[in-house]
Write a structure and sequence with these properties.
Helix content is 1%, strand content 49%. The chain is an all-beta fold and 578 residues long. It folds into three domains: 1-174; 323-393, Immunoglobulins (Immunoglobulin-like); 402-577, Jelly Rolls (Sandwich), CATH 2.60.120. Strands 1, 2, 3, 4, 6, 8, 10, 13 and 16 form a nine-stranded parallel beta sheet that branches. The protein has an eight-stranded mixed beta sheet with strand order 12-15-18-23-24-30-26-27, with no helix packed on it. A six-stranded parallel beta sheet has the order 5-7-9-11-14-17, with no helix packed on it.
């Protein structure tokens, strides 16, 4: 067929085809006019309505239109496999006013088309068969969808003009590739899936020209679990963007739209975020306020899978309990982030954090006094959570002082150890108001009298405990202190104590004790000597006022006492060295 001059319409009641299916070659040349095929019908199952099925055929089109009015009984309604072809103009139009409602036209063309139009009347649709559909001019969609999903075929628009794709109805159901070359203008990809129209629009601030494929996919993005997006509060679809032919952009804006039925029922649209996955997640800046069906963004960098949803709330940060340490090192005790990532920072004071991302990082170089560290758990771009911990260091710089509590002259043989028995136990409580602020206790002194000859207590253990109780709770307190709320129990010394003169006796600790300045303090004496003498031993001095039950004791010849002791007011005069 050769139509090269004049203005005419050529209507074909049935099909325009060669005499033999698939083998008869033809030459087709059109530069004007309108050729409408299958105006009445075609029930022959071996020919398309427009049929150039022989690959040796020639097809030239520079103008005019080919209109498909009705579908056929063949596997294609538009078939063009001409191996010799030149397409510089013209339009392939799907449907017209006489097309039956909701008809689906099957298009199989290895030859590019220039303009491809889906008519608005009666919503005709297109299904791609065997070959991708390549459009060199414009794609105009006013009717039904172009289905590439059924046969995994792609619609390709090679014209880089922003207006090369227009749409008032219908969408491309599967991959749509557009040539892109212009900055500062909107490119539309009218894509969707199933019954959902989910278009994407991009506006490039900078751009390396090439091709950009967009595909709308049902369901959550496969990597959403590693993102800041809450999969349970998201839009149940995502857009894949794939660059070819060197296309690239490090800064572009865009818009997405989708039916509200794709939202999880619990979403808060106004706080949607937009994430892009490409080996890892990055997040755009939201432009304006998203709605249940639209989101605009800026600041996207290159391409990947785009997903939308509400933030996954970062794990609530817990920096752990405040600490008091003796010296200049400590171990932090933050909680492990199950959502987001944690990081330590120094807020005030001094200290070097060993591994800022570790919840249990070490800290060195603490300053004397309070040092505040903050544990922050972030799940950007979502709101971070944080919590502070204060680590008070007594350091070694304050050593060399002493604190005397008690100056009384009353005496008691059972304190701090009873020399008439093989074994004895004694403990006293000193209040925080007496001991004062946090300190590193390095030893104690206690006051004795009535020793007549040098007397030795072998295997005498000194233990320190912190306690919330201010008195021993019963007249028969537990020797193992199980009836009290104690913490930080430390054996600070084991000595063979020889008392040669009366007065203050000194025990230096082998393990310094870090007192927190918050709790009360118990000093416990465990006498494991195992022998005794009937003379030479003496007593401890204590203050008889006030008469408060802040001491307890027990003794035995058979073995070290267990069970219960006896509560008393005989709290020995003590100096704390620090």
């Amino acid at each position: 067929m050769d139509g090269t001059s004049g203005n005419c319409a050529f209507n074909v009641a049935g099909r325009l085809c060669p005499s033999s299916a698939g083998s008869s070659t033809i030459t087709y040349n059109q530069s004007f006019g309108t050729v409408t095929v299958v105006t009445v019908g075609s029930t022959i199952a071996s020919f398309a309505g427009f049929d150039i099925g022989a690959t040796g055929s020639s097809f030239t089109m520079s103008g005019g239109s080919i209109v498909l009015q009705k579908v056929t009984s063949f596997t294609s309604d538009y078939l063009n496999l001409a191996s010799t072809n030149s397409v510089t103009g013209g339009t392939i139009q799907i449907g017209n006013a006489s097309t039956l409602a909701s008809s689906t036209f099957r298009v199989n063309s290895s030859v590019p088309v220039f303009n491809f139009t889906v008519s608005a009347t009666n919503l005709p649709a297109v299904q791609l068969v065997t070959n991708n559909l390549t459009i060199g001019g414009t794609l105009s969609m006013s009717g039904g969808n172009i289905d590439g999903a059924t046969n995994n075929l792609t619609t390709i628009v090679t014209n880089s003009a922003t207006g090369a794709v227009s749409r008032t109805a219908g969408y491309v159901n599967h991959k749509l590739i557009r040539a892109v070359a212009i900055t500062g203008a909107n490119y539309l990809w009218p894509v969707g899936f199933s019954t959902n129209y989910t278009p994407a629009t991009y506006n490039f601030t900078n751009l390396t020209s090439g091709n950009l494929q967009v595909l709308a996919v049902a369901g959550d993005e496969p990597n959403i679990a590693s993102s800041a997006i809450n999969a349970a509060n998201s839009v149940n679809m995502y857009w894949t963007t794939t660059a070819t032919a060197s296309a690239a952009s490090t800064n572009y804006a865009g818009n997405y739209a989708w039916p509200s039925a794709l939202n999880d029922g619990t979403v808060t649209a106004g706080s949607f975020i937009n994430g892009k996955y490409n080996t890892g997640w990055t997040y755009t800046t939201i432009n304006g306020t998203p709605t249940t069906t639209t989101l605009a963004f800026t600041g996207a960098n290159n391409f990947g899978n785009h997903a939308i949803g509400n933030c996954r709330t970062a794990t609530t940060a817990n920096a752990g309990a405040d600490q008091i340490v003796c010296g200049t090192t400590a171990t932090l005790a933050g909680n492990t982030a199950t959502v987001g990532a944690g990081s330590w920072t120094l807020i005030s004071g001094a200290g070097a954090i060993t591994t800022s991302s570790s919840p249990t990082s070490g800290v060195t170089g603490l300053g004397v006094g309070a040092n505040v560290f903050r544990w922050t758990i972030s799940n950007a771009p979502c709101t971070a959570t944080s919590d502070d911990i204060s680590i008070t260091s007594t350091s070694t710089a304050v050593l060399g002082s002493s604190l005397t509590i008690g100056a009384g002259t009353s005496s008691d043989y059972v304190i701090p150890a009873y020399g008439l028995y093989n074994y004895s136990w004694y403990a006293g409580i000193w209040l925080q108001s007496e001991v004062g602020a946090a300190k590193q206790i390095t030893g104690i002194e206690f006051d004795v009298s009535s020793y007549t000859t040098p007397y030795t207590y072998n295997n005498l253990e000194i233990w320190l405990h912190q306690v919330t109780n201010s008195i021993f709770p019963s007249a028969s307190p537990q020797i193992n202190l199980s009836d009290m709320t104690i913490s930080k129990s430390v054996k600070v010394a084991t000595v063979n104590l020889s008392i040669a003169t009366n007065g203050w006796q000194t025990i230096n600790f082998s393990t310094n004790y870090c007192y927190d300045g918050i709790n009360n303090l118990i000093v416990e004496y465990r006498n494991y000597d195992g022998t005794y003498t009937t003379s030479g031993y003496g007593s401890g001095e204590y203050d008889s006022t006030p008469s408060i039950s802040r001491a307890a004791y027990q003794y035995s010849d058979a073995s070290f006492p267990t069970g219960t002791g006896t509560r008393s007011n005989s709290r020995i005069n003590t100096k704390f060295k620090y």
